[in-house]
């Protein structure tokens, strides 16, 4: 028979257990939706493009959102061969697959086929752009640790930031003093239980500073994939510069009221922009928001470059601009499109580099990946002309807007090329008298030649030749000697 005392103790114990359970559940909170991601990846060798690196393992973070999807960074799962995800406090790994990936915004969606993975997980919901000086908490698995990490920080800045993953794209980013270390990438930044960002990068030279991708960019990505395809962030093809010189403003018929930034150039390939916009047009408004003479707009207490408003628009949609032209205001509906031709100026993913081998000469596309493969001091190894070809020429020249410059990456030594007098890292200009704008052009020029020699001219002004028959024989020997699977890899169509 239980005594009053024993009954009291039992009730106390039960209450304590209940409190512990409640407390545990409360403590668990949003971290239940945060997952650890293991990526087994293999990247190409950009200097010897028929080769691949060894498979490597890296880790990152992600979190569950609506419809049993996992949101993470693109760079966490890039070049993936196999992906595993682990739940909070659960040692069991689950296979996952990439459903959508946006390299320009460094975001990706993963799917896990096993429905048991999502049991008991409450998906995290999206919040709004946080305010400067407000506090956020980041969640993730830094440095490959087994236990989740929590860091709290203050929002210090919201501005356009170059995204390191793609490099040639700047989008809105939020800076915080919360620690964002390797492994944190892909984890959520939370405020009042809602997602206000995805941790994704630090910045060399800045201490106690990390960046996360804000809700504006996340929502754009999620809306984009609703039709089953990811298009990407569109561009207007215009360059916007400050217009703060009073004399210049007066010369354009403007008042000195600190409003309006100047369009100083139009880029290729944006035919609709060239039809509707003129250099020296002054942008007064974008989507109804006034543009200052510094090119910034006021947005939720922040002054942000007007370019971020273009990023609110989906591929193929229009944006309303009010411009000052020839002494009067004009309203222009400008279609925006994703520029798919600027790929080489940014880091490349998803496909191995194209190449062609002829007489032991290895040609590949010029790309940021190729230049990075030259080493940390690659800027000292390449001529300024190469940087111009990589970053600027295609944007300024309609005829070469879709060009993909070809570089001599390597010379595999053979008696047939022993005296070839052109060094590596030189850009190919013509082959057998045909201008080369792409790997397809190179392969076609070689294939169509029935003469005794292949003639090459390069951007440096150097010219050289190979005996055509000797080159073909050399290629067969070198292919077998170096175990090269194919003498060429051509995108879109094999010639």
Tags for this model:
495 residues, alpha+beta, Thrombin, subunit H, Pdz3 Domain, six-stranded antiparallel barrel
Structure write-up:
The termini are far apart. The strands form six sheets. A six-stranded antiparallel barrel has the order 1-2-3-6-5-4. A six-stranded antiparallel beta barrel has the order 7-8-9-12-11-10. The chain is of the alpha+beta class and 495 residues long. The protein has helices spanning 4-28, 74-77, 215-224, 246-251, 271-276, 307-310, 368-372, 384-391, 393-396, 439-448, 468-481; strands spanning 34-41, 56-65, 69-72, 80-86, 93-102, 107-111, 135-140, 149-162, 170-176, 188-191, 194-202, 210-213, 238-241, 261-266, 282-286, 289-290, 296-299, 302-305, 318-325, 328-335, 355-358, 361-365, 406-411, 428-431, 434-435, 453-458, 463-467, 488-489. It has eleven helices and 28 strands. The chain is flat, with a radius of gyration of 28 Å. The protein has four domains: 31-118, Thrombin, subunit H; 135-227, Thrombin, subunit H (Beta Barrel), CATH 2.40.10; 238-335, Roll (Pdz3 Domain); 343-489, N-terminal domain of MutM-like DNA repair proteins (Alpha-Beta Barrel).
């Amino acid at each position: 028979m239980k005594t009053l005392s024993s009954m009291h103790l039992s009730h106390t114990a039960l209450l304590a257990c209940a409190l512990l359970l409640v407390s545990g559940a409360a403590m668990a909170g949003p971290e239940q939706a945060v997952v650890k991601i293991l990526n087994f990846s293999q990247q190409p060798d950009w200097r010897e493009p028929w080769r691949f690196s060894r498979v490597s393992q890296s880790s990152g973070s992600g979190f569950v959102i609506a419809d049993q999807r996992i949101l993470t960074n693109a760079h966490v799962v890039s070049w993936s061969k196999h992906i595993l995800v682990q739940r909070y406090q659960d040692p069991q790994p689950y296979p996952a697959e990439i459903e959508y990936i946006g390299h320009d915004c460094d975001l990706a969606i993963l799917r896990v086929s096993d429905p048991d993975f999502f049991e008991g997980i409450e998906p995290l919901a999206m919040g709004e752009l946080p305010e400067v000086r407000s506090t956020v908490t980041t969640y993730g698995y830094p440095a490959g640790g087994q236990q989740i990490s929590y860091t709290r920080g203050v929002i210090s800045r919201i501005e356009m930031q170059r995204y390191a993953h793609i490099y040639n794209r700047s989008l809105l980013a939020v800076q915080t003093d919360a620690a964002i270390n390797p492994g944190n990438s892909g984890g959520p930044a939370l405020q009042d239980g809602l997602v206000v960002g995805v941790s994704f990068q630090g910045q060399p030279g800045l201490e106690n500073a990390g960046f996360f991708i804000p809700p504006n960019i996340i929502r754009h990505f999620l809306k984009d994939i609703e039709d089953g395809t990811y298009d990407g962030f569109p561009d207007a093809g215009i360059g916007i510069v400050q217009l703060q010189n009073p004399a210049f403003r007066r010369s354009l018929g403007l008042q000195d009221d600190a409003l309006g930034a100047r369009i100083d150039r139009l880029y290729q390939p944006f035919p609709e922009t060239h039809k509707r916009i003129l250099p020296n047009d002054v942008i007064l408004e974008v989507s109804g928001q006034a543009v200052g003479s510094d090119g910034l707009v006021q947005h939720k207490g922040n002054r942000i470059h007007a370019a971020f408003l273009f990023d609110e628009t989906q591929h193929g949609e229009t944006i309303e601009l009010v411009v000052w032209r020839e002494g009067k205001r004009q309203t222009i509906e400008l279609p925006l499109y994703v520029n798919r031709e600027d790929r080489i100026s940014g880091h490349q993913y998803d496909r191995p580099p194209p190449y062609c081998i002829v007489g032991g000469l290895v040609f590949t596309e010029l790309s940021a990946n190729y230049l990075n493969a030259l080493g940390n001091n690659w800027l000292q190894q390449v001529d300024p002309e190469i940087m111009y070809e990589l970053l600027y020429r295609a944007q300024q020249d309609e005829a070469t807007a879709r060009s993909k410059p070809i570089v001599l990456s390597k010379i595999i030594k053979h008696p047939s090329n022993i005296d070839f007098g052109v060094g590596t890292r030189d850009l190919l200009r013509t082959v057998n008298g045909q201008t080369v704008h792409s790997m397809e052009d190179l392969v076609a020029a070689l294939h169509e030649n029935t003469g005794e020699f292949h003639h090459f001219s390069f951007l440096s002004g150097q010219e050289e030749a190979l005996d055509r028959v000797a080159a073909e024989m050399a290629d067969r020997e070198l292919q077998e000697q170096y175990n090269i699977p194919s003498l060429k890899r051509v995108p879109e169509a094999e010639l």
